[in-house]
Amino acid sequence: MDNKKKQIMYIVNDDPYYTSYWIIILLKVLKNENGKFFTDYKKIPFLISILNNDDLMHLFENTDSFSNSIENRDLLFKSYKFGISKRSSFLHLLLTLEKKSFVTLKRSNKYFTLDVSLNKEKIKDDFFDKGLFCEEYKNTLAFKNVIKRLSSLKLSTFIENTYNKNGVKTWQI
């Protein structure tokens, strides 16, 4: 089963198939499906960069670790830079997923965001088998417990709670 996963992971950060899996898994675990929307797609690249990094996940699960180490804050800053740099490619990927009817995108007038919901009925049930992507499921569930209301947070609040409070200086997005 690991061979299947390795075949789609030629360069994880640039692999649109792997990123699509991540988006679908994220929406599934956070229960943003069939009309329940994940607020602001711009949070997704930040989330995936954290969830895809075992060192960062360990640090978030042990929340006191960030303030003690420049290396830890540097690792978190790299995640922030990834999130900033990949916003447009994630939008393109979400538009493609919407065209294939895997997700629904909705413009929110309240926060002026583009929100996303998984169309679970359009995806085969065996896709959600946790065997192949068990680490992705585990990390998403763990992070969901660290940052509360992950689906409904505005981007600015997410950045504040995830990066600024852990010593990473950010600029306004």
Structural class category: mainly alpha
Task: State the share of residues found in helices, binned by percent.
Answer: 40-55%
Strand content is 5-15%
Radius of gyration: 16 Å
* Tally of individual helices: 8
Give the low-pLDDT segments. 6-10
Describe this structure in words.
The protein is mainly α and 173 residues long. It has one domain (2-166). Helices cover 50% and strands 7% of the residues. It has eight helices and two strands; from the N terminus they run ααααααββαα. Strands 1-2 form a two-stranded antiparallel ribbon. Helix 3 packs across helix 5 (70-85) and helix 4 packs parallel to helix 7 (134-146). The longest helix is centred in the middle third of the chain and has 16 residues, at 70-85. It is globular.
Blueprint of the fold:
Layout: H1 2-7, H2 16-29, H3 43-51, H4 54-61, H5 70-85, H6 87-99, E1 103-108, E2 113-118, H7 134-146, H8 155-162
Antiparallel strand pairs: 1-2
Helix pairs in contact: 2-7, 3-5, 4-7
Output the keywords.
two-stranded antiparallel ribbon; globular; mainly alpha; 173 residues
Question: How would you sum up this structure in a few lines?
Answer:
With 173 residues, this protein is mostly helical. The chain has eight helices and two strands. It has one domain.
